[in-house]
Amino acid sequence: MGLGRATAITFAREGAHVVCADVSAESAERTAEMIRAEGHRAESVRLDVTDEQQVKSVIDTAVRTHGRVDVLHNNVGIAAAGGVTDLAVADWAKGLELNLTGAFLSMRHAIPHMVAAGGGSIINISSAAAAGWSGVPYAAYYAGKAGLEHLSRTTAVEFATRGVRVNVVQPGLIKTPMVARSAGIADAYSDGDVEAMWAKRDAQTPMGHMGEAWDVANASLFLASDRAKYISGAVLPVDGALTASFVSPS
Length: 250
Hints:
Rossmann fold; single chain; four-stranded parallel β-sheet; 50% helix; globular; alpha/beta
């Protein structure tokens, strides 16, 4: 299961009315169906996070329908493989647009509603790749996620007196369908052998195994909750001690 779907389900189980937004309308609706099948509340919408008018429309509609937006969870992470000498400039721009600008646009249009309602919580999903080399040349992904973390910290300070908390969850090596589908990652690890890639990623993690989407979802739930009411501007690694080990995967 992917990080976004697991988080949406986790939030719904705790009583949230979830608006599932995805560039794939089918995927968004499938997540909403899974939530409703458990007796919880959810709806779906197609959203391209790089389209400012779409972002504004989705957020404004959620506020008109439900009265407020308490939590914004930005979970977008993909980019073409390539380092600074071989990544196409268009792929560089697209990677930054998806991994950084999308969250900027979502925060830009959600924060005024949160301030008007007395506060809210924003959780941006980054990556251990923001902290260093991950073993695969992904220049746009590294830069986008590192930028997302700093944008989150500075936004947390900017709105600290207005009730809006902004935090980052920094996943390490997580076993998700997106990683399995990424030919670039599998090729870089193991000449396209997905099972061999899983084994290598397990071995790279100090705890000896990759994390699950639910690990990231539970961290996001904590940061969204009142139990984290004095936490803002933080980056929370969910990585089995990967970034703490100071060992770059190879």
